[in-house]
């Protein structure tokens, strides 16, 4: 039924303003049919992380490759400031970010100090339903431990790559970017190459945290961005089992240095330039100085052994 043939009785009982709204809507549907169509599905999402930095054209080139495969692609930059060559930093950023993205998200990660060597390029699917396009060098370790892995494939299909002759030093452009875009577009990821047993993927050699009657022992594994806070591998819940509460003094050892710090909720709970111990936003024990750099003041460079003494009764 068109607007012209609509029975006026259909609109009886409606206020004049309501009738005008209905007529306007019907007019738009008649003139612009797509106005009444279902909203289009969201464009595929790809999260991109590298240690390339942003001083040259590397990141832009990789994005150009992705857009050439799928112009509707939505690319989110996780970071391009991963500490150069630090596979551990890349792994922990993935660990921190992935819970906030839905199943189906594709993560393209290029932290690849052995690019061009015999290391494999792979796609890994986690049991959360997320995809990871990256070098097989340990980047997936922390995600694998938390989420579990459903499967993995080695990237060998040349049709999913670009260039007649692959660069030996820029697989971010020639392999990882195009493959990531293909997966995000919805292409069948199992067609990229042969299956790899997930237990055969390269893992980071991480020292396990241990606890005894004296306390808990772990490592300082990184600094937190530009602020100089120390990131440890000790889970906050495990630390709390030592008996501490906010306001308690905590005896810690970092390398050969012994310190007594206040356990607080947030930085401003102590005076300016005073060191502290807290549980960070990722749920790990952290060390900081209120509006200062713990790493610089105490000359700590990760990795460094770290321990916390058990609270004395």
Describe how the helices and strands are arranged:
Elements: H1 16-31, E1 45-50, H2 58-69, E2 74-79, H3 87-97, E3 106-110, E4 121-126, E5 131-135, H4 141-147, E6 149-154, H5 171-185, E7 210-211, E8 215-224, E9 229-235, H6 236-240, E10 249-254, E11 257-263, E12 275-279, E13 284-289, H7 294-297, E14 304-309
Parallel strand pairs: 1-2, 1-3, 3-5, 11-12
Antiparallel strand pairs: 4-5, 4-6, 7-8, 8-9, 8-14, 9-13, 10-11, 10-14, 12-13
Helix pairs in contact: 2-5, 3-4
Commentary on this structure:
β1 (45-50), α2 and β2 (74-79) form a beta-alpha-beta unit. The chain has helices spanning 16-31, 58-69, 87-97, 141-147, 171-185, 236-240, 294-297, and strands at residues 45-50, 74-79, 106-110, 121-126, 131-135, 149-154, 210-211, 215-224, 229-235, 249-254, 257-263, 275-279, 284-289, 304-309. It folds into 2 domains: 45-200, Rossmann fold (3-Layer(aba) Sandwich), CATH 3.40.50.10790; 210-309, Elongation Factor Tu (Ef-tu), domain 3 (Beta Barrel), CATH 2.40.30. α2 (58-69) runs parallel beside α5. It has 313 residues and is α+β, with helices and mostly antiparallel strands. The strands form 2 sheets. It has a 7-stranded mixed β-barrel. It has a 6-stranded mixed beta sheet with strand order 2-1-3-5-4-6.
């Amino acid at each position: 039924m068109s607007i012209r043939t609509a029975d006026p009785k259909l609109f009886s009982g409606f206020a004049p303003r309501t009738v005008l709204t209905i007529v306007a809507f019907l007019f738009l549907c008649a003139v612009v049919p797509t106005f009444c169509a279902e909203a289009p599905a969201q464009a595929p999402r790809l999260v991109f992380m590298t240690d390339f930095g942003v001083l040259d054209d590397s990141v832009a080139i990789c994005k150009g490759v992705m857009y050439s495969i799928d112009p509707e692609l939505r690319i989110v930059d996780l970071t391009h400031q991963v500490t150069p060559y630090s596979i551990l930093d890349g792994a922990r950023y993935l660990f921190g970010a992935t819970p906030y993205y839905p199943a189906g998200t594709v993560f393209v990660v290029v932290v690849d100090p052995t690019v061009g060597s015999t290391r494999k390029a792979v796609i890994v699917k986690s049991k959360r339903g997320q995809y990871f396009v990256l070098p097989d060098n340990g980047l997936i370790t922390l995600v694998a431990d938390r989420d579990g892995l459903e499967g993995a494939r080695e990237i060998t299909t040349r049709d999913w790559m670009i260039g007649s002759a692959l660069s030996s030093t820029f697989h971010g452009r020639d392999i990882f970017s195009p493959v990531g875009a293909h997966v995000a577009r919805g292409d069948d990821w199992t067609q990229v190459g042969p299956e790899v047993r997930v237990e055969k993927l390269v893992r980071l050699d991480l020292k396990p945290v241990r606890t005894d009657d004296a306390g808990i022992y772990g490592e300082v594994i990184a600094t937190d961005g530009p602020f100089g806070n120390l990131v440890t591998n000790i889970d906050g819940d495990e630390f709390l089992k030592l008996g501490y509460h906010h306001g308690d003094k905590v005896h810690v050892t970092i390398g050969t240095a012994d310190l007594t710090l206040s356990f607080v909720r947030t930085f401003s709970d102590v005076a300016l330039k005073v060191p502290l111990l807290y549980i960070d936003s990722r749920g790990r024990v952290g060390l900081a100085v209120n509006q200062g750099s713990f790493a610089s003041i105490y000359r700590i460079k990760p990795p460094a052994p770290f321990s916390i003494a058990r609270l004395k009764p």
